[in-house]
TrEMBL record:
UniProt-listed InterPro entries: EF-G-like_DII, EFG_III/V, G_TR_CS, P-loop_NTPase, PrfC, RF3_C, RF3_dom_3_sf, RF3_GTP-bd
Coiled-coil region(s): none
Binding-site positions, GTP: 17-24, 85-89, 139-142
Record-given protein name: Peptide chain release factor 3
Subcellular location: Cytoplasm
Presence of the UniProt keyword Protein biosynthesis in the record: yes
Subcellular location, principal: cytoplasm
Organism: Hydrotalea sandarakina
Function statement: Increases the formation of ribosomal termination complexes and stimulates activities of RF-1 and RF-2. It binds guanine nucleotides and has strong preference for UGA stop codons. It may interact directly with the ribosome. The stimulation of RF-1 and RF-2 is significantly reduced by GTP and GDP, but not by GMP.
Amino acid sequence: MGYQQEIERRKTFAIISHPDAGKTTLTEKLLLFGGAIQTAGAVKSNKIKKHATSDFMEIEKQRGISVATSVMTFEYNGFLINLLDTPGHKDFAEDTYRTLTAVDSVVLVVDSVNGVEEQTRRLMEVCRMRDTPVIVFINKMDRDGKNRFDLLEEIEKELNIALHPMTWPINSGKDFKGVYNLAEKNLLLFTAGTKADDEDAIHLNDLGDEFIDMKIGERDANQLREDVELIEAVHGNLNVSEYLAGKVAPVFFGSAVNNFGVQEMLNTFIQIAPTPKQRETSTGAVSPNDDKFSGFVFKIHANLDPRHRDRIAFLRVCSGKFERNKYYHHVRLDKDIRFSNPYSFLARSKDVIEDAYPGDVVGLFDTGNFKIGDTLTEGDNFYFLGIPTFSPEIFKELVNKDPMKAKQLEKGIQQLTDEGVAQLFTQFGGTKKIIGCVGDLQFEVIQYRLLQEYGASVEFRPLPFYKACWLTSKDSKKLEDFLRFKQQNTAEDKDGQPVYLAQSEWFLNTEITNNPDITFHFTSEVH
Ligand code: G4P
């Protein structure tokens, strides 16, 4: 197969959802369609249950599971699909945000009963930053959910995206009878507990056909006709370029656990989801068609075995062909490295690969060379843009309990922050080290790993901050003055960038108003 064809058959995406909406279940069904797994139940949920917050073995197990299922590659109808998994637990949301920089599109799962939930909102905000194309799967139609028109309105309003129904449900809960596919003009009937397959799709030339009344009853058939007329009048045909621009999201209704409505979504996905696109770098856009290889690291995973410090860096290939044993240029370190055992992720088994194409994710063994956002090239000196760091939400002071281990602690915290486990800030004019995380569980992981892997014993003291803003200004004097006057609330990040640590929204807004010459950024580019 030619290089161009390899690129054009690749679709790299992630499924995002609020925990429990059905991401794991949907993943499993997609893998079944792709033939990557044979039986249901093969995909382990990567959830950490609430009670396990202090159960470190659980965290360890969790880390093992999530590396195995981090990237799942499967083929479907000639397409090669890379599904990048994202942690379900909100305390690891940062990991999810970064994974979203490595995909070309997302599928958003919404629970029809709960509608838009907190995590849905946050994840969509990240997608909107990059105009990532979104397909919505409204799940659990077999349960008594919200009114479907209300639900669509809620999603549109809350997530600030226009929706385009591709299928339309006939009732929900006990009365759920199936979905009507608006584009294909066929009816897919639902029978609880059984798997829908092609035989269940009834092709219709005309919604007026009395056959429908026979199948779903006159009342529901009339309701369907009314709904479809309304939807068609409002929406017309899907405008694929608006979907690709992240402005319109096609919507499917279904029930993942019953494998209902999933294949309809998958069939549309392979038709319309974007293939690898060009990406911005410090020296201009790089196209997947460029001959020369380039890619970036978006995730680093520590080894499960604490005696071995090697890690796995996840590299997204952006252009050219990645080849085993070939020397590539590590731009930040200005050093050439080759990889003898790169591997691909064919559902749950790791295979050494010879080459990889744009859109693919390669797992690279790393002994400490990489940090999040690093670029590899075939010699060029550019780096990829748009891999931001987001503001943490909980801040704590890192206190060393064992002064004899100061060096180990330094090294450990450096490596853990390289991995993106947490963010490190150092207060100006002092040595106070501040760790910023999204969730409390991350602090427990840090404490545990520093002790296990580096022999460093630490504790954390809560700090009253709620957000970090990165600061820039055209007037360097003004910025300097601000940093001096606000010493208690300013620090530098790991790369030496100044940040303002806000105690509350009120303080933040006051400082923004009082300092018009300083720009407060809510994210920072890694570089
Ligand atoms: P997540 O990865 O988004 O966190 O969700 P997951 O797939 O684990 O699904 C959460 C729960 O919702 C699971 O039940 C799952 O079986 C159920 N579920 C998924 N899709 C549907 C659906 O279409 N209809 C209904 N009624 N339920 C659905 P659980 O009891 O938490 O776990 P399990 O013991 O059943 O695996």
